[in-house]
Amino acid sequence: MMQRFSCPFCGPRDETEFFYGGEAGNERPEPAEETTAKQWARYLHMENNVKGPAREIWVHLTCGEFFVMERDTVTHEVHASEAFRGDRT
């Protein structure tokens, strides 16, 4: 069964129009010149993989806009979608 996600810019659309961008709040290690390989690998590859409510970054491929989606990773129920403002929400 196909899911419907709601883009804050375009409204509800089929899940095939969206791409997962990672957990919201994943802080990029800075300054770059002082970042170790281990810190960079953790930033790129390690996720909390929470079971239940999660905040995630998604992009709507049709309009190209990024947004934060709050959804339950167990039930797949979407609780909210909001424009991504780049403030590491």
What is the radius of gyration? 14 Å
Q: Low-confidence parts, pLDDT < 50 over ≥5 residues?
A: none
Task: Briefly note the CATH topology name.
Answer: Folate-binding fold
- The number of helical elements comes to 1
- Secondary-structure element order, as H and E? EEEHEEE
* CATH H level, superfamily name: Folate-binding superfamily
Class based on secondary structure composition and strand pairing = mainly beta
Specify the helix fraction band.
Answer: 10-25%
Strand order of the largest sheet: 3-4-5-6
Oligomerization: single chain
First and last CA, distance: 30 Å
The count of strands amounts to 6
| CATH secondary-structure class | Alpha Beta
CATH architecture: 2-Layer Sandwich
- Percent of sequence in beta strands: 35-45%
What does the main sheet amount to? 4 strands, antiparallel
- Mean pLDDT across all amino acids: 90
Q: Tell me the overall shape.
A: globular
Number of domains: 1
Protein name: Sarcosine oxidase subunit delta
Pfam families: SoxD
Organism: Fodinicurvata halophila
InterPro entries: SoxD, SoxD_sf
Structure description:
The chain has 89 residues and is mainly beta. It is 10% helix and 40% strand. The strands form 2 sheets. The chain has a 4-stranded antiparallel beta sheet with strand order 3-4-5-6, with no helix packed on it.
